[in-house]
Amino acid sequence: MTTSQKLTEHFLTCTICTEVFDKPCTLVCNHTFCRKCVVSYTKTRPEAISAKSLLCPFCRKMTKVSAPERPVEEWADDVKPSFVIQGLLDSFGPGSKDTTHCSYCKEEGETTPASSWCSVCDDALCERCIRVHRRIPSSRHHDVVDLSGETKVKVKRKVMCKVHKDENIKYICKDCKTAVCQTCCIIHHRKCDLVVEIESEIPAMKTELRKNKEDLLKKHNEMKTHVRTQTSKVDDALTLYLQIESNIKSAGLKAIEAIKVKERKLWAELKEMSDKHIGELKADIKSGEMSVQMYQQQAELIDQTLQSECDMGVYEMYQGCEAGDVEAVGVTDVKEKGRIARIMFRQDTDKLSRALDDLQLGEIDVLYEDVLDLKATPVLQDNINVLDLKATPVLQDTINVLDLKATPVLQDTINVLDLKATPVLQDTINVLDLKATPVLQDTINVRVAGDTYGANLFDVTVLVVNDTDTVVVTDDNNNSVKSFYTRNKQPGHSRLSVGDPPWGITMLNDNQVAVTVPDTREIVTVQVNPDLVLLSTIKTSKHYYGITSLTPSTLAASSISPPCVDILGMTGHVLKSLCPGQPSRYILKIPTFLCTTRTGNILVSDWGSTCVVCLTPEGDVVFTYSPTGDTTLKYPHGITSTSTGDILVTDHHLHRVLHLTESGQFVRNILTSLDGVQYPRGVCVGGRGRMYVCTPDGVKVFTCK
Fold it and tell me: Distances from the Cα of 266 to the Cαs of 253, 346, 347, 365, 639, in angstroms?
């Protein structure tokens, strides 16, 4: 296969029509298609039409058009191909010319070798045809070059005028900054002062392009140097990391050794006291044994006396017993002061826990670039705003001075708070009163044009875009994200297809949301105008379901396999994975809905373990709501947190919405099937004291105020 064939098949073929590019256009995502192909595809996508943008069939990114008021068929006319694609087409595409044979003779069916090339006519000519070419007055002065052998001549591409299709663009109107043909000059630019031939401007353009090239090469070299520097810094950082890791291990070993020293000291003290105690007990045993022997001997002596016939001996023994002499012969029990009664080990677990918490192995200090380091030595950088008394004074301004001689004129009356007056509550419209009885205000019908199936809502959020309340939902059945709003007293909606079933949704800022698409391992970001416009597609390593925004630069998303909550950067990179509990007994099983509390913690609704878990961004468990009885959860789904810290969670199978305190205590079932709530999923709280619940009938809107 020749180089030309390879380039044509692999780089110059439109992936839609599988033909060589016909009027190619390169979109903002750098994917190139035929103009007619990308226009035809865009016309089939309602979200692209509503966004006034060309939609890339490959990556689904939008390309804004310069004149959206024109017909859709003309949207791609101003989108130019990349210079690389156009250069390849000029050199190797069907328009490139082989100068081996005469172009004119070839039209007559002959194959005459070409000897010359006319750069104006853009044709190869043989000896006979070049003679005719030189006799014609209009071509007599054309630039003709001799050819030797089979030479490829660089084709001078003709660009035709879009208005006057048969005329080449040869001029530039500098006033209007546009390239035009001769007829355009006569009709539209006759009053312009600077209309010149393109050819006359080429040297200056090439000079500017060479300068741009030099600038790019300079930036290229600077960036290469920067990359090398950063690579070196990575190596240094890794070395430093290993050193710090070693220092941390050393500090840990020192702390462990200090604990072991205390442990050995306790062992020694225990042994000393234990030996003393056991010694005292053994001494008591020895003394007791001696007493037993003495008592036995005394008893035997009395027995012998009784058996004797000597009355005087009996009398003396009797007198000795009465005087206590017999007992005195034995060893008496004397309890000494300071004897050990019992040895115990008393441990203050709370004190030990506090000591371990307060144990400081060290601190990790991070020095950021361009941040004031208060530990460093200050260095004088500049003297700012110093009055130079040697310079000539210059009047900068005249400050308004009260002219007491002038007549006073009333300018304004400033409202002053009258503290003696009775305060009047001006507005409570944006506060959700969870003590009040919810009242069904509206049911939003989420079935819209373009839907193939009935809507199946999973999650919901509410934004205020240009003072317009906008409800945004994810529709699993129709693979789309939808927005609903009322503008100029007229209801409106928008539908954005995401290719596969979406699940969770979270608000990123005032007019942007992020949506999980688990099947394709994607998180898409969408702009809400309140019409929906796809901004970006973030590829992820896991199938994520629930999602919530933690900070402007981090997200939390839940995975089922493995069951965990990951902290993500906005590029989809996993910063930390939270799997609370022991490996054999993880708390999370099927975490499918998330939200962020007002304190920055993460609420997880897990219908696998039928509980609600509150986690810190570090992975610590704040509380777990998993009750039994009437307040038990059977199939927890959507979850949200209010500005007051209260928690709302839906139970899909028990047809209710539970109200929990900020600490995870049950308050009441704020909504039940009696309120028209059947199989609820997503839930959120919006402004104006409203609560939004996803149901099979649509989005139920309740007021609590």
Answer: 20, 11, 12, 37, 52
